[in-house]
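Input/output pair, single chain:
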Amino acid sequence: MSRNRKNYDLDKVALNQKNLSGALKIFRYIRPHLGYFIAGMVLLVVGSLVFMVLMGIPGEMANVASGTPRFELDLTIQDFGKIMLILLVIQGVFSYFRTVFFTTVSERGMADLRKDLYNTIMTQSITFFEQRRVGELTSRITADVEQLQSAFSVTLAEFLRQLVILISGIAIIAFWTPKLSLIMLLTFPIIVVSAMFFGRYIRKLSKKRQDELAKTNTVVEETLQSFQVVKSFANEWYESVRYGKAVDRIVKISLEFAKVRGLFFSFIITVLFGGIFYILYQGALMVENDTMEVGDLFSFIIYTGILGGAIASFGTLYATLASAVGATERVQNILDSEGEINLKDSKEGNNISLAGDIVYKNVQFSYPTRKEMEILKGVDLKIAEGQKIALVGQSGSGKSTIVSLLMKFYPLDGGEITINGTSIQDYNITHLRQNIGIVPQEVILFGGTIKENILYGNPNATEEELIEAAKKSNSFEFIESFPDGFETIVGERGIKLSGGQRQRIAIARAILKDPRILLLDEATSSLDAESERLVQEALDALMEGRTSIIIAHRLATIRDVDQIYVLEDGEIVENGTHAQLMDVQGGAYRSLAQLQFS
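Output:
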């Protein structure tokens, strides 16, 4: 059951001109809210400068208290207290509006992005989904968009704020304490660069730990999705051991991670703080020698701490922005994908009604992911309007493929399919599928109510039409037996309903859709006798007056169809009615029938 899985989330990329220019495309979602974005940026810069001014006041207060003010402002300590209070209020107001503005931009912009991303995914072809995992696509809408939202609302703003603080802070201490700042600028960068290289190794171990954690999540996801298989094979112990081993690997990596992180903290304490203390020691000597005021040293200490925090934050902010750029690339790749349908067509509804004969002319086909295997090898068949035909044959003979091609799930490799003499390629794909109803062998229901699942065939149907569809599908009686009736929750994939009940809900859904063409994938093959009788009655009612194509596994259900086509290895080897085919000595259909009826 274990599979190798791609790590869908949170990979960061190296920042370069190419991916940065690609990332800028996402800013089109910010453009409608550009006023809020610019206002937030202005408040951010001004607020950061106000903060830096505020941090310099305590040092000047100390100078005033000692009788050696640096600036001739003729201000008392009480005056400085009032100024600090005013600046704090201004800073608070700026922070409030900046937060609101950036949140407005990120929430509204990313909401538009989520909608576009979801719409793009939903309009893709079947091949698109066959080449990607559901987890990957879900990750694009959730984890990647969350990263972008965080980048716009927090990270980008914080990066700019720290940049303003760094530049203004260096300028202030260079002006305020030039000698001491020179000592700091000669020693501090070497220490910080060393710490950044150390931190890069720590991030590698952190990523390795995240990868192992993702593998444990894979085990959990697989077992929870396939719990019926686990239970039926009594493999709870096996899965427990498998998960335990995965967790043990995380513990091993985490312990190694902790040791390296401990060394990093030791380095920070001894080297980084040692460098800071050395600089402060030099400052204390300057105060002792009367070459620096004590208030200036106090201000220098404050600004040094702020600058150290700003420099230290750049590593984390850079990594976060790099991850956001990676997320942008992945999201943009999907947004750039060309869909097969236009959502406007679905919104406007069906404006055509397909009627006429369905003709397959020398149809050849191989699945896009398996081009080396030819599935259909020059299939020819004709289905008259209102006719009921059946496709029979061994698994893999091409029955389901014939149906899929009629719905334009895949492009043909050769030949043509026409309806009423017009190639299906000339029909709008949405309008074509709106004229086709399908009742599959394995019915998949949504996790909502019975009513919602039936109305999926026609969301605009009235209450009377809903009840009529339930009655025609032989499902009204069992629906009414539930305490909540049509509002009964069916559970994920319809798990709370029996197989026969799910089939009848699917038939009711098809009845509401009222299609011209009906596709049935042996809907009774896995049902008990009573459920099969009820479902077959409902199917007979559904097929009345419609062109119907039945994929048959149980030949007893297709005795009365107008025409039967027998497929072998992608070719039609026989066709005729049940009686005609049974008269063919040594025929393929007769052999299949004898196996089932004997």
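The two ends are 37 Å apart (CA to CA). The domain at 8-176+324-340 is CATH 1.20.1560.10 (ABC transporter transmembrane region fold).
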